[in-house]
Amino acid sequence: MTERDERERPTRVYAPDFLTELFRNPLDPGYADAAARRREDPPPAWRARSARTVTVVVLLVLGFLLAVAYRQTLEDEPGRAQARSGLVTQIKEREAATDELSARADRLRAEVSRQRDAALSDSAAARLRDLEAGTGMGRVRGDGVVVRLADAPGQADAVTGAGVGPSRVLYSDLQGVANALWSAGAEAVAINGQRLTATSTIRFAGEAILVDFRPVTGPYEVAAIGPGSMKRRFEQSRSAELMREVADKTGLSFGVREADDLTLPSAPEPQLRYAEPPVSPSPAPSGGRSASPGSSGSGTSPSPSGGGR
């Protein structure tokens, strides 16, 4: 570097405020020197023409590749549409077969119940029906409450005009409502016709809400059969208060109403995983009173695990 270059090279002054100085002189002196040398000694014309030629060739190749990809996409679209249509048809066929099998299972279950009641005494049959109603294995009928939840309607963005996704009902909302109904005295609860039991689960799977591994879609209706004070006690619960706040802020639909003569279906038969025979009573000593083995149990409300927003 010559003395003249050193004299003309700007000197960076480092002020105490480094950020102010950095914004004032953002370019490093080395870049300024390189730009000055290019102005004094410009590159040959053939180099500039070569750079332009390479740029044009690259653009042509990219355009050709994009055209080939677009053409290939158009050619593959009929095949994808046909595959999608085939999958939709298979899903509908499987749904129809599942509904038919469910109806057949209900008919067979009713027939088994009739045969069982005929084989049992009246008192034993009545006690068994009460146990089935309490555990969710039997259909129940009575007055109660229906809680309705629905997604908020979609709205358009004020700036772009694009659609904004609505506030959706979460699985934890259904969990909270079901648990609050149990706490309010509900004797039987069902979500969109799916009866809840002590082993019921309410969870998310992708975009769907599953109740006992069966998908349910909105609007969601949580029906419960119970005493006349159930509606008042539910509306005073923390879950109902939270849902009212969410509905006011997001536009989500939430309503509670009393319903007469509700009918809740029975839950699917549970799968038996293991069983053990009862313990035989010990023989009583002679001359003494025999102690019959008592069965102790804990009565719990069949509510799924709760969650919050």
TrEMBL record:
The chain crosses the membrane at residues 53-70. Residues 258-309 are annotated as: Disordered. Residues 91-118 form a coiled coil. Pfam families: DUF881. Residues 285-309 have a biased composition (Low complexity). It comes from the Bacteria. GO terms for cellular component: plasma membrane. Keywords: Coiled coil, Membrane, Transmembrane, Transmembrane helix. Belongs to the UPF0749 family. This is Uncharacterized conserved protein YlxW, UPF0749 family. It comes from Micromonospora krabiensis.
